[in-house]
């Protein structure tokens, strides 16, 4: 099996830790191809969302993950589906990677019944408990205490002689100074929970930059804790994410308590579809990041420069994935809107019974004729 070795010596910074991930790693052609395909699929799916949003086939909130693909891909490589993962509204890629398909994700965004959450959640509310994915959350930071609850569950239900599962709560740099993160971090440290506080630092919150919104010099979120150690990882390098997360998971699963992880990354799109993303940062900065730090180009270059794949072969793969995403989108769009009865499924019934179809007095009926495109 062909493989190559990669230098990781400048991809980690440690805080209050005596050990560190390895300074180099080996990856096989198969592994690199898998990362490439996953990341390129996410990229094309997000670009399709952008196009369809602008064509008004997707409504409401929509937050895209392009630029940040290596984080979800690298974490997923290390996690099992028994490990828990909860994140913010920027959740399409996690939904896809945790047991979903492009068609299901896009169908959800088109409001179709076959969608990931039956066309009822939309961009911010994907959820797949069977694959250890506890959802996107619309309230900034709200996922973090829930993630600590998931870590509590992992410790509570740990079986004798088996490794402890871990729980990861992802949040942005803008969310990082929320009170509920500090509170839940304190509990996680006190109870030595296997909780991973994973800050995806893309340098910007909603219309503002790290320099403006945090008193933490340089926005170094891996140094948030005194009692909790931290690690900063190059979140644009999927191999650094993989090796860094192996280290983090090992630390947390062995009963050492929580860890702060800061993934250094970049968001190509604005915060959401209503934000062009160019009022608080320059177009040059975005272009420079694309050409110097793009996570997908990194893997493509790794394959080509190490003689593991030819440029032509990579182009063929890109072409195939573009076609697959476009086909999935067309099929998703053909789906049916949810039937009226679906509205009442998975809503708690008033008397606590398990009848999922009981209709609730307080649910306002949707006006489909007004909300669906003619
Ligand atoms: C409690 C709360 N406050 C404000 C908002 C509005 N809001 C949504 S996202 C966001 C900024 C978050 O930025 P960051 O955490 O860096 O995440 P990113 O969008 O960059 O992934 C704000 C202020 C909200 N949804 N919830
Ligand atoms: Mg941010």
Keywords:
single chain; 374 residues; alpha/beta; Rossmann fold; six-stranded mixed β-sheet; globular; binds thiamine diphosphate; binds magnesium ion; DH_E1
What does this structure look like?
The longest helix has 26 residues, at 29-54. The protein has one domain: 3-Layer(aba) Sandwich (Rossmann fold). The chain has helices spanning 29-54, 69-78, 92-97, 102-109, 143-156, 179-190, 210-213, 238-253, 283-293, 295-305, 311-333, 368-371, and strands at 3-7, 12-15, 24-28, 84-86, 167-172, 195-201, 230-234, 259-264. The radius of gyration is 21 Å and the shape is globular. The protein has 374 residues and is of the alpha/beta class. A 6-stranded mixed sheet has the order 2-7-8-6-5-4, sandwiched between helices. A two-stranded antiparallel sheet has the order 1-3. Magnesium ion (MG) binds at residues 172-174, 202, 204-205. The site of thiamine diphosphate has 16 residues, from strand 5. Its EC number is 1.2.4.1.
């Amino acid at each position: 099996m062909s493989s190559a070795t990669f230098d990781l010596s400048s991809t980690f910074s440690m805080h209050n830790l005596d050990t560190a991930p390895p300074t180099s790693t080996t990856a096989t052609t198969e592994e690199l191809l898998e990362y490439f395909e996953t990341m390129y699929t996410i990229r094309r799916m997000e670009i399709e969302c952008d196009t369809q949003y602008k064509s008004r086939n997707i409504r409401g909130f929509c937050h895209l993950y392009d630029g940040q693909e290596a984080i979800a891909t690298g974490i997923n490589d290390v996690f099992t589906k028994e490990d828990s993962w909860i994140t913010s509204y920027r959740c399409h890629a996690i939904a896809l990677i945790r047991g979903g398909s492009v068609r299901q994700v896009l169908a959800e965004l088109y409001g179709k019944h076959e969608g990931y959450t039956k066309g009822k959640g939309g961009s911010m509310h994907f959820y797949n408990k069977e694959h250890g994915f506890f959802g996107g959350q619309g309230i900034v930071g709200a996922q973090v205490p829930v993630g600590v609850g998931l870590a509590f569950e992992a410790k509570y239900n740990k079986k004798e002689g088996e490794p402890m599962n871990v729980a990861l709560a992802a949040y942005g740099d803008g969310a990082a100074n929320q009170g509920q993160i500090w509170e839940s971090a304190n509990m996680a440290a006190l109870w030595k929970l296997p909780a991973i506080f994973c800050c995806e630092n893309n340098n910007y919150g909603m219309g503002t930059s790290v320099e403006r919104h945090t008193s933490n010099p340089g926005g170094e979120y891996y140094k948030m804790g005194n009692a909790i150690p931290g690690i900063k990882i190059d979140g644009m390098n999927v191999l650094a994410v993989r090796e860094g997360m192996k280290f983090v998971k090992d630390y947390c699963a062995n009963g050492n308590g929580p860890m702060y992880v800061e993934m250094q990354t970049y968001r190509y799109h604005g915060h959401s579809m209503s934000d062009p993303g160019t009022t608080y940062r320059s177009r040059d900065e975005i272009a420079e990041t694309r050409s110097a730090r793009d996570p997908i180009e990194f893997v493509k270059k790794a394959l080509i420069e190490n003689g593991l794949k030819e440029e032509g072969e990579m182009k063929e793969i890109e072409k195939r994935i573009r076609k697959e995403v476009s086909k999935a989108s067309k099929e998703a769009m053909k789906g049916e809107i949810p039937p009226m009865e679906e509205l009442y499924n998975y809503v708690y019934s008033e008397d606590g019974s398990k009848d999922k179809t009981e209709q609730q007095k307080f649910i306002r009926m949707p006006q489909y004729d007004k909300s669906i495109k003619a």
